[in-house]
Every structure is written in structure tokens, then in C-alpha cells.
TrEMBL record:
It is an enzyme of class 3 (hydrolase). GO terms for molecular function: beta-galactosidase activity. The lineage of its organism: Bacteria, Pseudomonadati, Pseudomonadota, Betaproteobacteria, Burkholderiales. The active site is at E353 (nucleophile). This is Beta-glucosidase. Keywords: Carbohydrate metabolism, Cellulose degradation, Glycosidase, Hydrolase, Polysaccharide degradation. Belongs to the glycosyl hydrolase 1 family. It holds the Pfam family Glyco_hydro_1. It catalyses: Hydrolysis of terminal, non-reducing beta-D-glucosyl residues with release of beta-D-glucose. Its EC number is 3.2.1.21.
């Protein structure tokens, strides 16, 4: 994992970090006053998660956080991206839960003591169940409850965070949670998804004001997932289908944030599914960002569905990961360059997630994850190409530090650069982790 000499990766101010999320690693789902989340409910529902897995124990990071900080310290990464579990730090009546807050305070202090920058996401999908019982993100009031949470936790942890992110991947929360039901809370209606998205983004905008007021020395932004589409179809309708895929996957989120409007083509895809928008909402949503987090994983090939939308037609003979996702690094370069063109006020970018799942096994104390190493090298090269094309990319976070609870796929899919034996909780750095450590040591020596 040694990039070319002219790669942006050699610049010491280009952050190379690792990322995790609370529900995926923490476990301790009822410890110290933590309330149930929608993912506790969803994963406990038969048939929703592969093998009936839940996040009840996960990687037991809540009790083993010191060991995991030591792993980060061993790797000598520049930064660590984590999320805070809203149900762990706030009571149902909106008061701080000091036991839960203390966990994050000591974790952030330990990271700071080791010289790592801290990127903290406020919402990585674990909505308190009591709010879902009142309509969740389809209820406008949830946006204001989120802002209250952001206000409280940014006061409590001010000075310990280098960069706040309000939301992780609102597309997933809205579409997978309320549109097709693949994720918690498992609702399936397009109109619910568009309304949930609007309230997620409104909550983001409301929270940004609190983050800036309470922790002015920290950056404040948002993390979005993006997707690239191609078509093997030859018709104009197929080319339009690929455009509509990117409207739904990218512009649905980015246009409100960066242009203060929803893309008109979205309603071509989903007629009569417009959300209720109140006066002033779009200005709140479009509050200036200090940075934009980009999560990228794969490309999709689509053709027209013969109606208003598209249908996916997987390409044959391409490299895929254990998730079935195509490995297509140039999609990341393409999207970054196109975003710079499409959004004149594009803020500085961090690649906040990029990685792949593979069926990793420990053999004689080692895990040789050669496909992941190749994956990282090619995607980092794509980032370098985007930077050389003029895109202001300032860092890259590996997804993920640890093998963990992969949402609806449970524990079968392993994204970590550190292997976790879930029966014993033994951590084993994979070869990819060793190469990250080697590269960073070499960069520091220059």
C-alpha cells in the first residue's frame, strides 16, 4: 500500500483515518440507561436481519473501547470517525444521560491524548424507538427533537471534536427505512420516504446552528452516500434511466443542501410524492457547510423500466465484493469531478467511507485480505486523480476499523481491517491494517 511519489496521500495534511458506527460496534444495548433504538426493534423482528443477528453485543466496544483505541494508536491513523448513539445520551424526556455521555467523553479524550483527530457523527441511523412510535422521521417534530439532541451533546462534548457531522447517509435513512423497508423502521411507501428525507435534512439544518454556536472551533458538515450509474441499453430512455438513478441517489440529497431546492426530475421518477415543505425550510437546509462527507462503494448498471424509472441489470464478468457490489473505482473519481462541476459552492470533501466486505478467515494467526488491499489502492488512486482534476478532497476514511454488525446482513459480511471473532471478541489486524500502518510510518519518516 505504497502510492506513487506524487500522490496526494503523501501530503501529511491529507487525513487517512478509519471509521465505525455506534450500533454496529458498541453492543451494551441496555447498559447505563441506554434506551431502545429502531435498530434494536428491527433486528429483534424475525426475518428482518440475516441469521436473526442483532446489535445487542456486536463488538462489545462499549466495554472494550480502550483495546480499540490501542488498535487505532498502533495503526497511527490521523483521524477516527465514530458516531454517538442518540438513545445512549438522552432520556425520553430530553434530559442528558450523563452515564452515556461519560462513555463518549472518555473515548474522545483518549483519542485526543494520542494525537488523533475526531470526526463525530450525531446520527448513524439509531433513532430512539420512542420517537419512531410518534412517526419517526415522517413526523416534523423529530427534526426539532434532533436539533435539541445536537444542542445538548455539542455543549457536553465541546472542545473534544474536530469535525461534527449531523447525519450519516440520509438517503439510507429515508429510502431504505421508509421507502423499500430494507432497513429500520421497515416502512414501504415512497411518499413516506420523501417526507422523511425532508425532515432529516431539516433536522440537519437546525442542528448546524447549534453546532456552530456551541463548538465554534470544530468543523460542521454532513455525510452523504453517493452512487454512479451506467447503462448497457442503447435507447434514449436507458440513458435517461441512468440519469434518474443519480437524481434519486445523489441530487435528492445534494440539491437541497447545496442549491436549496429538490431536483425537478425527482418528481418525474416519483409523480405526486412531493413532501410537505414549509416556508423557510430550504434556507435552513441549505446552511453553509464546512465540509461534505462522501461515502462511495459501487456502481450500478440500469436500463429503463418502461415507465417513469429504471431497473438494475447487473453487469457480467466484473469484480464484485462479498456484498455483490461491483468494484468500480473510477465511479468515485467521476462523481467527485461531476460534483465540482454541478455545485459551484461545493465545500471541501472528505471521503468518509470507502471499503469492501469479504469472507475473511484467520489462518495461522493471519488474515490475508488481498482483494481489500487492491480495492483500497485503486480507490485511493481515484481520489488522487480527482484532486489533480481540481477537487478539494482533504482526507479518506477506511470503512471499517472493525468487522461489525452489517445491518440487515448481520455478522456474515466483514468490512473491517481488523478481524473480530464474535465468540471471543479477539481482534486480529488483517494484512490491510498492517499495510496501512506501514504506509503511515513511512509517511511520518519523510
Amino acid at each position: 500500500m505504497l502510492p506513487p511519489a506524487d500522490s496526494v496521500l503523501w501530503q501529511k495534511n491529507f487525513l487517512l483515518g478509519a471509521a465505525t458506527a455506534a450500533y454496529q460496534i458498541e453492543g451494551a444495548s441496555s447498559a447505563d440507561g441506554r434506551l431502545p433504538s429502531i435498530w434494536d426493534t428491527f433486528s429483534a423482528t424475525p426475518g428482518k436481519v440475516l441469521a436473526g443477528d442483532t446489535g445487542e453485543v456486536a463488538c462489545d466496544h462499549y466495554h472494550r473501547w480502550e483495546e480499540d483505541v490501542a488498535l487505532l494508536d498502533m495503526l497511527q491513523v490521523d483521524a477516527y470517525r465514530l458516531s454517538i448513539a442518540w438513545p445512549r445520551v438522552m432520556t425520553a424526556d430530553g434530559q442528558p444521560n450523563q452515564a452515556g455521555i461519560a462513555f463518549y467523553r472518555q473515548l474522545l479524550q483518549a483519542l485526543r491524548a494520542r494525537g488523533m483527530k475526531t470526526f463525530v457523527t450525531l446520527y448513524h441511523w439509531d433513532l430512539p424507538q420512542h420517537l419512531e412510535d410518534q412517526g419517526g422521521w415522517t413526523n416534523r417534530a423529530t427534526a426539532f427533537r434532533f436539533a435539541e439532541y445536537a444542542d445538548m451533546i455539542s455543549r457536553e462534548l465541546a472542545g473534544l471534536v474536530d469535525a461534527w457531522a449531523t447525519l450519516n447517509e440520509p438517503w439510507c435513512s429515508a429510502w431504505l427505512g421508509y421507502g423499500n423497508g430494507h432497513h429500520a423502521p421497515g416502512k414501504q411507501e415512497v411518499k413516506l420516504a420523501t417526507q422523511a428525507m425532508h425532515h432529516l435534512l431539516l433536522g440537519h439544518g437546525l442542528a448546524m446552528a447549534h453546532l456552530r454556536a456551541n463548538d465554534p472551533s470544530a468543523q460542521a458538515g454532513i455525510v452523504v452516500n453517493v452512487g454512479h450509474a451506467s447503462t448497457t441499453g442503447s435507447r434514449a430512455a436507458d440513458r435517461r434511466a441512468a440519469e434518474l438513478f443519480e437524481v434519486q441517489n445523489n441530487q435528492w440529497v445534494l440539491d437541497p443542501l447545496l442549491k436549496q431546492r429538490y431536483p425537478a426530475a425527482l418528481w418525474e421518477l416519483w409523480p405526486d410524492a412531493q413532501p410537505q415543505v414549509e416556508a423557510g425550510d430550504m434556507a435552513i437546509i441549505g446552511a453553509p457547510l464546512d465540509y461534505l462527507g462522501i461515502n462511495y462503494y459501487f456502481r450500478s448498471n440500469v436500463v429503463s423500466d418502461g415507465g417513469h424509472g429504471y431497473t438494475e441489470v447487473p453487469l457480467e464478468g466484473v469484480e464484485r465484493t462479498q456484498m455483490g457490489w461491483e468494484v468500480y473505482p473510477d465511479g468515485l473519481r467521476h462523481l467527485l469531478v461531476s460534483f465540482k462541476h454541478d455545485y459551484p459552492h461545493l465545500p471541501p470533501v472528505y471521503i468518509t467511507e470507502n471499503g469492501m466486505a469479504s469472507d475473511d478467515k484467520v489462518v495461522d494467526g493471519e488474515v490475508n485480505d488481498s482483494q481489500r488491499i487492491s480495492f483500497f489502492n485503486r480507490h485511493l488512486a481515484a481520489v488522487d486523480q480527482a484532486v489533480k482534476a481540481g477537487v478539494d478532497v482533504r482526507g479518506y476514511f477506511i470503512w471499517s476499523l472493525l468487522d461489525n454488525f452489517e445491518w440487515a446482513f448481520g455478522y456474515e459480511r466483514r468490512f473491517g481491517i481488523v478481524h473480530v471473532d464474535y465468540a471471543t471478541q479477539k481482534r486480529t489486524p488483517k494484512r490491510s491494517a498492517r499495510l496501512v500502518q506501514q504506509f503511515l510510518a513511512e509517511r511520518r519518516s519523510k
